[in-house]
Protein 1
Amino acid sequence: MTLYRKVAAILWKDLLSEFRTKEMIFSMLVFSLMVTVIFNFSFPPGSEFIDDALPGILWMTFVFASLLGMNRTFVYEVDKGCLQGLMLAPMSRSAIYISKLLVNFVFIMLVELTMLPFFSIFFHLDLLGIIWPLLLVVACSTLGFAIIGTLFAAITVNTRTREVMLPILHFPVAIPIIIGAVQATAALLQGQGWDAVWGWLRMIIAFDIIFLVVSLLTFEYIIEE
Amino acid sequence: MKSTLGLVFVLLGMFSLDLQAQTARLVHYQGTLLDSDGAPFTGTTDLHFAIYTRPMAQQPIWSETHRNVPVNEGRYEVLLGSENPLSLSFYEYYLEVKAAGTDQPAQRVPIAGSGFNYRMQFLFAAYTIVWLAIFLYLVTITRRQKKIISELELLAQSSSSQVTT
Amino acid sequence: MQLQSRFERPVRAVGYLLLAAMVVNLYLIFFFAPEERSMGQIQKIFYFHVPCAWVSFLAFFVVFVYSIAYLWKKERRYDLIAHSAGEIGVVFATLVLITGPIWARPVWNTWWEWSPRLTLFLVLWFIFVAYLMLRGFVEDKEKAARFSAVFGIVGFLDVPIVYLSIRLWRDIHPSPVVREGGLAPDMWVAFGFSLFTFTLLFIYLLYLRVQLQKSEVALSDLKRQLVY
């Protein structure tokens, strides 16, 4: 079996099991909606600060939701002993990592894509005009979150305080993506040219590449027995 | 030995600083005054002085009006605090000068108040904290090390005595 | 693993050298270096604020190198060194974050500025603390070593990227910048010596901390042996 088919196999398994219960997606969505509404209440009504804060609100919502989702990635594997099964199967550790990465990416993207229309409605934004660059920014940033999130989730699933440990590890390391994503989104919303957006996007993509390589190199050390 | 090392340089540090702090009561100020055409003003005018703690602060912490200040070729000098005594205990101030009959105040100028000597307190605080932290860390490590070594010896002794019985 | 290190004598010599260096350093800072024109005496915080920052970076670099070494060779010693360096790094990063505001308050009239360097140090501090927390929260010692090694590597590689992103972010929101005056030659002497002293201090502390780690390991090994 080629790497592609192995990855596809695990990916399909995880997607299937999630779509049967829809637990994770649903909780992430409800959580995101709640966070967005609460953010709205943190500002005085009709305040002009909201416009400046919008990209930040958007991305904070996405970050929290993604952390929620990524926490679950390895929980079943470790708790039900599936991880040993995966490792006994004739596939490289990298295949496991890539498939988990893609699972996280798909789920977070689904939540984000669902949230964007809500943002548009709640905050009176015209997102359709900038939809393609926006999607590009969202995709690259989500990939970044997922790259380090998957790596760290594999670590934190073994710790005593799982749910808390992942944000603690993830947040400081994800700062470049957060800064880049917020600024790129702000540039898009303010109608700045592609150059401004590309400057930030470039940094996000560089981050993605660097940490993808590092994760692929170090993942095996995390799940070896 | 290691703890005395720490103690010594804490003491040395405390020796080397002077803690005298003084507050300024009078500030001698020289300024320039231009008229609305930008030419140096000559004559007498009332000048209103106010001191703020921040460039954009609305409320002055001190103000004083000097009447009939002689201005020669745009230059004047006053002794701030001569009518309303100053007791500046902050670190940096912004002085605003307003001439009578105008609406626009001159820019706020940063002046160093008595700040300089109070800065010594900050320097001393920072210094003490750094050395204290290093000292405490050293002491903690040494103490734990001693405790473990004594425990190790105790265990070694008891295990060897068990072997003999 | 042996407890009596063959470094015992040289380290004691280093200890005395360190004491002497600190005395000389104090003299250089407070009596030799001239007072800075615009800031006055408070500028002298610079002579230990910056070396603390340097030691933090050095500590983190040691964590990075020994994390890689541990994953590669799996020698326990490397893990102990990484752990110790991480701890010392947190101590010095905390000192940077304390002396920074103490310097800023009289000079800029504010306790905190989101300046690139100070912000970076805040993030660095969080990464270090997360590193130590990870070690604390994993049950199995061997797993803890592996996991923190991975995180140490990722964290260290992240630091320059974080700094870059903070700088770029600041460029669009410029705000009062510290007037970076040049240093007089005498100041360079005091500063250079300060760097030297703090580096020496770091090595000394690292050695002591690793020795403590080794003793703790020896103790737990012995206890386990006796139980069986």
Note: The interface with chain B takes residues 3, 15, 18-19, 22-23, 26, 30-31, 39-42, 44-45, 48-49, 52, 88, 91, 94-95, 98-99, 102-103, 105-107, 109, 201, 205, 208-209, 211-212, 215-216, 218-219, 222-223, 226 of chain C (CB under 8 Å).
Protein 2
Amino acid sequence: MVAVQAYTMRAGITRALRRNHLAKAVLVVLALVVVAGVFAPLLAPADPNAQDLLVRLRPPSWLPGGAAGHPLGTDRLGRDVASRVLYGTRVSLLVGVSAALLAGLIGATIGLVTGLYGGWRDKLFMRIADVQLAFPPILLALAIVAFLGSGLWYVVLVLGITGWVSYARVVRAEVLSLRESDFVVAARAAGASNLSIMRRHLLPNVAAPLATIGTLHVASAILAEAALSYLGLGVPPETPTWGGMLSDGQLYLGTAWWIAIFPGCAIMLTTVAINLAGDLLRDVADPKAYLS
Amino acid sequence: MSLLEISDLHAEFRLGTGVVHAVNGMELSISEGETLALVGESGSGKSATALSVLRLNPSPPCVYTSGEIRFAGRDLLHSSERELRRVRGSEIAMIFQDPMTSLDPVQRIGAQITETVRRREGLSRYDARRRAVSALREVGIPEPERRIGQYSHEFSGGMRQRVMIAMALASRPRLLIADEPTTALDVTVQAQILDLLAQLRERHGTAVILITHDLGVVARAADRVLVMYAGRPVETGAVDDVFARPTMPYSEALLAATPRPDTPRTAELPAIPGLPPRLDQIPAGCAFRPRCSYAFADCAERTPALTDRGSGHRAACLLPELGPRHAGGAA
């Protein structure tokens, strides 16, 4: 007998990290972003909300006219840009990950139920999905924020509610083929209820595509949070967020570019890294790619 | 008293393109500890009948229009889903044709084997593990302690079928329905699996409904046989009886079409002319009539019922007995 190395996602990820330099780079960037968010209070040179009107709109310390102690300059209220970018990482990651989890939870549940049961549940939820896709998400977000009010968790809620459709569709499509598969019929013949079939057989089998969509959704949720904050609909203004800083900084783009450019770079770097991670995860989740 | 008794079962699949009458007046009975073989061509309603017992035909489109399925005194056809779930897997277990796809690819073997017993008996993780190990040992899988931690792709086809049998028997069912358990396996492994089933039946007194289209398997493993055609039973009786003296032309033709070691290599294998009827347009009268070499005018008029041919042997044919035989006694 030939010993065949079992294919697991974990083995695939390890292999990708060993062979693929892009994967290494992505991992390093993501690790830096997470460290920046988690250890923001230790890394930040100043309190992100401390105002110092004596050093307003000063360029980064390494440029002519820069204020000492402000490595990325200061904004119009004399707050330290570096500190605000670091603290903004926390909001972005928190919102991105929570929104993806919430949307994943809603979407996977709806996908499992509609896929397995079919019938009226399927028709109902798929029509709701169609209707929701017909609305521009930002409009929906505006409506919800206007209705509920703004705040960090409202943003998460909004992004969760607007993001479930893609999860539900993918899970439903997978379940439609899985539910006819022999092992699901076998489980049924062994007396499994619909609930335990969903939990024990369907969910584990759709985990790989779910993880991929989830990762990509983290990036788009970070962008969406930035967009909402930019529009003033996100978290309260005193909370440092990347989107809020962009919006503050745009007035000064000509004179104090550092206010908007650094948070902009942070957004770009993070979302690109997460998107690449999502793509890599998708490749790894497909064992056929592994075998070739 | 029989353990399972199906009478006048009708099941149809209502598809967009028409109604497929998969089971048309099926009847069978099986006693405790007995092995009954269900034979017939593809599409003769063997699997649909088997799945009906646990009401596992996908519904919609399947509708059970009439009949009764009595198992140990209960009518399964009209039980609630909840009552059925208690029967499934614990009193009646099933194994399927393709062991390559009947196991969940992302779950470890041990967890799958004990899923049912853990749910039923609330076993602890430790006891469940021991149960899984002993179940694998019982079906002859070496190194069960190591194997329970593996995934299905790490098993060969024959080993997977053993795992399926271990799963099915873990909760000591009274009836095992084996839907073509050896069709997807190569011949030597087939023999091992059949031997295993026979051993387990001996040890636990499990009744077995063995679905197959392989008459060799029937001769080897079954006590009684039931031949199906177009969703109906056409002949039933003790295997030796039916094989030696088929009294329905279809069974006779099936037997004649079985290759045997003494068939000359150059001889053409006899085949049954024509095709089985389309199940969405079954002709009136005897469904086998268009392919039957004995057919006469009456066959188009009357649908033959199963009638007694002595010592439990029953056949559905208007002829009291078949004329000059071209099928020899078998097995």
Note: Residues 325-331 of chain B have pLDDT under 50 and may be disordered.
Protein 3
Amino acid sequence: MSEIRFTKDHEYVRVDGDVGTVGISDHAQQQLGDVVFVELPALGAKFDKGAGAAVVESVKAASDIFAPVSGEVVAVNGDVDAEPGLINQDALGRGWIMKIKLADPKELDGLMNQSDYDAFLQTLA
Amino acid sequence: MRYLPLDASDRALMLARVGAADIDALFSDIPADKRLSALLDMPGSMSELEVERALTTMAARNVAAGSVPFFLGAGAYRHHIPASVDHLIQRSEFLTSYTPYQPEIAQGTLQALFEFQTQVAALTGMEVANASMYDGSTACAEAMLMAHRLTRRKKAVLSGGLHPQYSDVAATLAEMAGDEIVRMSLDVRASEDIGAEIDDSTSCVIVQTPDFFGNLRDLAPIAAAAHAKGALLVAVFTEAVSLGAVRSPGEMGADIVVGEGQSIGNALNFGGPYLGLFAAHLKHVRQMPGRLAGETLDADGRRSFVLTLSTREQHIRREKATSNICTNSGLCALAFSIHLTLLGEAGLRRLARVNHAHAVDLAERLGAIGGVSMLNETFFNEFTIRTPRNARALVEDLASRGVIGGLPVSRLAPDAGLDDLLVVAATELNSAADRAAYAAALAQCL
């Protein structure tokens, strides 16, 4: 059973076993506007939690995507490379960016679950 | 605005505020042996008339490029510039506008840059070119950094045929960034095996053609060797007119093409301002440094021009920008574009043929002189000769006979043991009489 966690920078990580699928939240894609380019990390790259791991560029801005958890990149989504608009259409599904093999599952405890994140978004409104 | 100089108490106040003991403390980053310890030995104050006389006398000792037979190249070339080029670039809309990039008011500049980019892409055989950079050497260094970003590797291999000053600029940047550089030794006869230097950590090889010594190099096998290791080929040229005669670097497999555009539309200008040309493949456009003008439609559906892909740039992406260079050589680019437009494709090819023909004639004349040997098997409008004398002393003797004979290799590479080599260029401006004068003067100096 997968569970989803969010960062205050609006990345999500959906965890299955020891692998987390990382992307940006639906709120984030709405704020960015039309995504026109995604710079994916290299397979095998290792990131510490909070390090810049990818870049999402919209018509408005280029934004760093920070690794929500530490670990090694085990997959990147070639579909968003070819069709960046997938992030707008389905940020939490087909618009995922990379999969990270978790170095330390305890890091998830520091992230927000869905209801915490929803409450966090209310504070931004 | 006031231009009153500061007095001692102002200076003391400022030093105290920044926490510096004295003025010299502000220069502590400069190595002590590079700083003056005493005042320059300069004459005291003079009247305006005295200064004018002194400087006129000094200036008369110069031998100006346009006043004598002139065969100097090595990265800066003397070509004919039609009078219309200078006339057009001096229109105030172009000459005096500062950062004229707001599409609402700058359609002329933006369209000119768009046309310039189109010309550079066509010349280099690439898909996209930027709105220009400072000069060939900085464009070359930026190409190296772009290759690092694209390959996520940090080692560049520099051909021994690359202009030594271009190598120096790349090495300076690499040193500051902690990146690795492999500088191959000066390769007078284009005989190096650069493929052997490429390994799995190489981001790019940087190869110039025509090279510093004038040799033409086939880039195709170098591109294949680089690509086999996942590295990129950065192709460099210093003589843009050569592109009217040789296969474009893009056709030969280059991934990034950079060069000096001064040859077309721009005078020698004492070494600057010059014009960096930069072209790449469309798939790499987001990692390309510099500004890009693009074509679009306005609200009424009319063709118009804007700066595009600015999200890569410093003013939006701050420290994550693809480059710290957000500016370009707009007026030099305009001069390039106007001259190239006047030439057209057929005109550029004719100009290139004339350059080559003059160089061939010069090579034959100089090669016929006893003791002089021609080192190139191939060349465009520049080649290297070996002379029986020290080349630096030789060019001084030639200058005293009214001929600027070329660049002694030792001037840019003093420790390479190549003191007898001279790099010689001929353009459309070197008449048959000039070439004969050179051969006669050289024969007298040996």
Note: Chain A has one domain: 3-106.
